[in-house]
Q: What sequence folds into this?
């Protein structure tokens, strides 16, 4: 592919990418900021802890969906620079999942470890959610470029396939906890099913050499 | 973010007691410094809400002395799936409910079936103030000053026959007034039920108001039952029919998920919901969780109703 024929949005300059990154950073911080302002103004409703728990969990899943959308978008639109915002998105997913966990341990249970252990046994959805956070932790820890180099691209990629497990656990966690109205968790289920489904399609296509084979030969395969 | 006083509707103003306790809440979570700054933003609260038609309701010995949950929380945090499954949906969407004219058909296994007008029901017996704990099956609780009278007052007038083993309560089923009915989240109409001796118990009330006012739509206007020793969903709202039956009524939540919601659904910290513990609850407005009491703290009055029953089996 000749870089000169690509439109600007497909191949922005380094400065433009930096601007896009700042914009995405600010957008990702806004939901947390909003919760802080609502708490400050006492506008979180009758059950503030439930409100914070729901909001942080919802944003963790939403940012995870955005993170997983990077690869299909790159492939469909040939916008390979998107890869350069994926790390930030992944880390924001970890950020909201951690806030969600801290809300549970601190605000909801107030470090009542005995209660937490009883809860984890009685409420399997909490175990599932906690597993998702655990699976995410090594991904956050190895997100730096230095760690990619240290692990080697192959091993790093293999490790980061854990994100698929995180998506599945996250949706099961949500599906399992609602009382009856499954609408919202089912929407997430649909989105994640689509995002993981296209990867299966790509994987099948890429295995087959020939004209229908991979479009990209120089770009390493990313999860 | 600062608003002038003229921009703020009375309904948006935090009731005084909630406003004052909000500091405790914020201090508890370590934000006292921010709270001090925030206090400058919130105007002093003043009285609100419609006329206090039950202001002279007589006090009841059954009332708890625990502090009542603020009016705003009682009327904006509701489970009433006929208006949507979100907690704020009923307060936002129940304006379409028309509570006058309204009738309640009382029939089934009784000598004197009758279609009651709502205004006849309100005048049926002396309206009392009953300050009850309300425990939701989801793990939160409130303290609500209800206005009503013993359900037995209405039941007696119908003269149930010896075949009347149960009482069934049916909620309005009109999707023009209740937008949530268009979703299939539960089987409509909402049906609840009690054993006749439960329904005749002096704690079980027919409720027409709260905080001295006519019942707000989102709380089950114009008439509901309140059965304080059972999980909240057992207390049917916006009732249009009360029927005496020989068979145990097939209730809405029991039909939806039978292994999670039994017919009895007495508050019981020892019997967990299959997906969560019922040992503790969060009283709205409080930071920590408190232990849940057997029969929601009404064991002394109602435990005898279930003498000899295996409460794990009849959950």
A:
């Amino acid at each position: 592919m000749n870089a000169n024929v690509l439109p600007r949005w497909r191949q922005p300059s380094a400065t433009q990418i930096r601007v896009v990154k700042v914009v995405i950073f600010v957008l990702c911080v806004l939901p947390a900021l909003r919760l802080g302002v609502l708490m400050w103004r006492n506008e979180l409703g009758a059950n503030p802890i439930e409100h914070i728990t729901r909001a942080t969990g919802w944003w963790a899943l939403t940012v995870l969906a955005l993170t997983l959308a990077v690869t299909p978008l790159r492939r469909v639109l040939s916008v390979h620079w998107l890869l350069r915002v994926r790390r930030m998105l992944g880390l924001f997913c970890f950020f909201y999942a951690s806030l969600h966990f801290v809300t549970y341990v601190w605000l909801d249970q107030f470090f009542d470890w005995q209660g937490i252990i009883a809860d984890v046994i009685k409420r399997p959805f909490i175990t599932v959610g906690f597993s998702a956070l655990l699976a995410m932790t090594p991904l956050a820890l190895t997100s730096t470029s230095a760690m990619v180099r240290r692990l080697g691209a192959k091993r790093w990629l293999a490790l980061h396939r854990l994100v698929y497990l995180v998506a599945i656990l996250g949706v099961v966690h949500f599906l399992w906890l609602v009382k009856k109205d499954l609408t919202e968790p089912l929407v997430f289920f649909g989105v994640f099913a689509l995002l993981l489904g296209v990867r299966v399609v790509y994987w099948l296509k890429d295995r087959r050499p020939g004209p229908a084979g991979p479009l990209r030969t120089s770009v390493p395969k990313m999860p | 973010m600062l608003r002038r006083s003229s921009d703020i509707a009375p309904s948006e103003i935090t009731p005084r007691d909630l406003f004052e306790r909000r500091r405790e809440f914020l201090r508890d979570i370590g934000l006292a410094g921010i709270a001090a700054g925030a206090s400058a933003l919130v105007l002093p609260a003043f009285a609100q809400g419609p006329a206090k038609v039950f202001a002279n309701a007589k006090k009841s010995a059954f009332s708890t002395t625990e502090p009542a949950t603020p009016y705003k929380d009682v009327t904006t945090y509701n489970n009433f799936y006929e208006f949507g499954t979100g907690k704020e949906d009923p307060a936002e969407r129940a304006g379409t409910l028309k509570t006058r004219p309204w009738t309640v058909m009382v029939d089934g296994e009784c000598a004197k079936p009758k279609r009651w007008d709502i205004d006849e029901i309100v005048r049926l017996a002396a309206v009392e103030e009953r300050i009850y704990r309300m425990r939701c099956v989801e793990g939160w609780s409130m303290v609500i000053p209800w206005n009503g009278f013993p359900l037995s007052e209405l039941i007696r007038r119908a003269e149930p026959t010896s075949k009347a083993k149960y009482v069934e309560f049916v909620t309005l089923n009109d999707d023009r007034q209740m937008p949530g009915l268009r979703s299939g989240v539960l089987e409509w109409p909402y049906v609840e039920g009690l054993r006749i001796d439960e329904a005749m118990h002096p704690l079980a009330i027919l409720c027409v108001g709260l905080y001295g006012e006519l019942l707000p739509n989102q709380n089950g206007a114009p008439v509901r039952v309140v059965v304080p020793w059972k999980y909240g969903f057992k207390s049917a709202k916006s009732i249009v029919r009360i029927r005496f039956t020989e068979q145990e009524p097939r209730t809405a939540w029991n039909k939806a998920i039978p292994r999670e919601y039994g017919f009895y659904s007495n508050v019981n910290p020892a019997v967990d919901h299959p997906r969560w513990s019922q040992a503790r609850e969060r009283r709205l407005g409080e930071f920590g969780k408190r232990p849940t009491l057997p029969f929601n703290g009404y064991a002394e009055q109602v435990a005898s109703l279930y003498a000899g029953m295996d409460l794990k089996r009849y959950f």
